[in-house]
Amino acid sequence: MYVEERMYLLHPGKAAEYLKLYETEGMATQLKHLPHMVGYYVTEVGMQNMVIHLWAYDDLNQRDKCRAAMQADPAWQAYVAKIRPLMVTQETRVMKPAPFFKERLAKMLVAGK
């Protein structure tokens, strides 16, 4: 199992617009293609204007297939064209859960279905 962390630094004052676009246009398409949303967050303390979201995958092949399907979806392409101008930087990290957390993460994902 892997968890992908995606961090977007937005232009100051654009977080509300980004979140509204995601809620109304991006989320349904993303949830159609990606298996497990682990969380979607905005920073409260520390670096401001950041949106962080986490996605779980069974393996890296699943991640590649899911993300390729999403990237090919015209609805996703239209959404991305709207949010790109709001973003300053994007960073992605793919992580493996610690051995003692792997089972807990699996249970959390099952409970979230």
Write up this protein.
This protein is α+β, with helices and mostly antiparallel strands. The protein has one domain: 2-Layer Sandwich (Alpha-Beta Plaits). It is built from 4 helices and 4 strands. A hairpin with a 7-residue loop joins strand 2 and strand 3. The longest helix has 19 residues.
List descriptors.
113 residues, alpha+beta, Alpha-Beta Plaits, four-stranded antiparallel beta sheet, 4 helices, 29% strand
What can be said about this structure in brief?
49% of the residues lie in helices and 29% in strands. The protein is α+β, with helices and mostly antiparallel strands and 113 residues long. It has one domain (2-111): Alpha-Beta Plaits (2-Layer Sandwich).
* CATH fold topology: Alpha-Beta Plaits
CATH class: Alpha Beta
- The spatial strand order of the largest sheet comes to 2-3-1-4
Class based on secondary structure composition and strand pairing: alpha+beta
